[in-house]
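Lay summary. Proteins are chains of building blocks that fold into shapes, and those shapes determine what they do. In this project we predict the shape from the chain. Here is one chain we studied, written as its sequence of building blocks.
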Amino acid sequence: MQPEAKDPEEDSVWEEPSSMLWGLDPMFNSFTRLYVKDILQMRESCQVPGIYFYNSHPIFKVDVLGTVVYKREREDFFCYGVDDGTGVINSLCWKDEQWRDQSGARSLGSSARGDFNPANELKKLRQAQHSSSHLEIGELLRVRGPVKTSRQQREIMASTYYKVSDPVMAVQISWMMEVPQLYRQCYDKPFQLDGSAQNPNIKGGSASYLLGRATRILKDFLKEKDVTRFRPYDVQDLLQPLVSRQPQTIAAEQEPEAGPSSGPSTSFKQLRELLQKSLQILEDEGLVFRKVKSQDEVYHVTEQDKDLLMAIRDILREDCRREKYAEKGCHILHVLSSVRQSYSRNVSKAALELVLKALECNSDIISTSDSHYTIL
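And here is the predicted shape, written in a compact code that computers can read:
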């Protein structure tokens, strides 16, 4: 299975982090538990082949749990097709020479004395190792290793792999509960550095650094306070310390020819500009939206807007009864068009995707195929 083509518009705005900074991301040296679909769609680095990016996180080692759906065996390796429910990826699993070579066990047999026979115990150990590494179609496999692209096909070069005994599906259930948490808490949060790491020559940070800090402050506020809606002046004071510490940074970068400025009016202008840019980023990511664009700026928090969630459920419930959508469900663009007609013209696709993901996590809806949804 080949990685799906990326949206050209996304490629045009993609900026790969410098390789000198990759080691500062904890995901870089860990076995990342990504879904197979995301592994197949990761961007490969332009700087170092074999390094990939998920949401700006540099990744080269992954950890996958899935069902074997096909296998090939050669003298030196197995090639298993692993399906985790989101896609299928090849896993190249090298055979261990120890269990292929039986000469060691025979040489130990002549020196064995008493009840404990090292040769027999070694033979049992190798048989158990052989059993755990020799899988059949339908069995559960866990594989860890670096990702490689060979002959335009993405594969896992297994450093560790074994058959998982899971008769009551306890391992799979635990995995399905842990991985979404990792996505929410780590993988889906972009890799961000403080200003000194991005550019050690900049004292106190830059405009982009301040913007990143401001955006994170607003995200944390929305998450911790469970806010449903707010106005800009409700959160403006949260960003005041940033502007107080950096009174000239934004203005100096945007107007390099202008001389230094100070005073309450300049600070307020910088604060207002920083707030507007931060809110725009939240809108672009779909975290907030303005139901009605007017002078009274009211931002709705997407995942906390119960009316929006109800509107989307009602659209899917009604439209999925129609013969056209009964089998496959409604495409996300159809849902987006209906939401904009019945609820708000300002709901973005990113906001809709967040709501659909939340509804699916709550088992209110289900994705029948890529970008199609139906009510449960």
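What the prediction tells us: DSSP finds 15 helices and 15 strands in the chain.
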